[in-house]
Amino acid sequence: MRVIIVDTPEEVARTAARRVARAIDRARLVRAVGDRGRAATAHGHADAPTAVLGVATGSSPLGTYRELGRLARAGEVDLSGVAAFALDEYVSLDAAHPESYHAVIRRTVTEELGLDPGLVQVPDGTAADLEAACERYERAIAEAGGVDLQILGIGTNGHIGFNEPDDHFSKGTHCVDLTESTIQANSRLFDSIDDVPRQAYTMGTQTIMYARMILVVANGEAKAQAVHDMCYGPVTPACPASILQLHTNCVVVADEAALSLCE
Ligand code: F6R
Fold it and tell me: What is the pLDDT of residues 161-204, one digit of tens each?
């Protein structure tokens, strides 16, 4: 795990966006000649994605998405043919609800980066058969040739996606009951805490760990304990993000406040 410390949230966004751009360039080259592109083409995608991003919602990566959009408009990175898979989605929240992750990803990722909406997928929060929806999502990721770069935020309790502290690490995309602290944190986006969904779909910890590269962005003092435990604590499902220490290509970009408990 490589930790990059920068002064401000703005610098986090610039540094992270440049790294995303480099990872997309690299994936485009590798996919043009390698197995990933062939895997996606073999699954019937006439236009196999040029690169595949895993994308988090939440406030942490917003500046990174904005900066990446700016780089694309300035011609400094080519985002054509880039596919994206959202990390998670609330269960039972209509895709048209402004706080559904369908809507949030459309506003902050698809539109901001100018991606082809047909290449952006979010778990189906309203599917009748939850398990089948999770399996479909995992299959879609595999058929796209896997995730080249997963962008993550981290919860104050160390969660990644909606993989909450537990006594075991989760595997594939699955449905979870949200913890009170997550419901509380997300209530700022809803009219009242009673409107916050109690369940969500999330890529599993294993799905996240399969990404070829992982980039975690973190800002602010509220994340300091979680960032410390992620980077330097024991690897334990009590802090789901701590498993990222075992990933072979994980970069954390954080500001001084978020790293204030790390020596
Ligand atoms: C978002 C997600 C969550 C957030 C985390 C941090 O898709 O899966 O794990 O990344 O809760 O949220 P913010 O960035 O709002 O502090």
Answer: 999 999 999 999 999 998 888 898 888 889 999 999 999 999 99
Q: Which of 138, 157, 163, 174 is flagged as catalytic?
A: 157
Parent domain of 156? 2-252
Task: Indicate the number of domains in the chain.
Answer: 1
Q: Is 43 in the active site? A: no
Identify the residue whose C-alpha is closest to ligand 1 atom 8.
161
Catalytic site includes residue 186: no
pTM: 0.94
In a domain, 259, yes or no: no
Asked if residue 241 lies in contact with residue 232, where contact means CB atoms within 8 angstroms, the answer is no
Residue at 72 is within a domain: yes
CA angle at residue 128 from 59 to 85, to 5 degrees?
35
Residue 258 within a domain = no
Residue 155 Cα to ligand 1 middle (Å): 6
In a domain, 262, yes or no: no
pLDDT digits (tens, 9 = 90+) for 70-115: 999 999 999 999 999 999 999 989 999 999 999 999 999 999 999 9
Active-site residue, from 102, 159, 174, 228: 159
For the question of residue 124 being annotated catalytic, the response is no
CATH label of the domain that carries residue 41:
3.40.50.1360
Angle between the N-to-C axes of helices 130-143 and 35-42, in degrees from 0 to 180, rounded to the nearest 10: 130
**Strand 82-86 relative to strand 51-55, pairing:** parallel
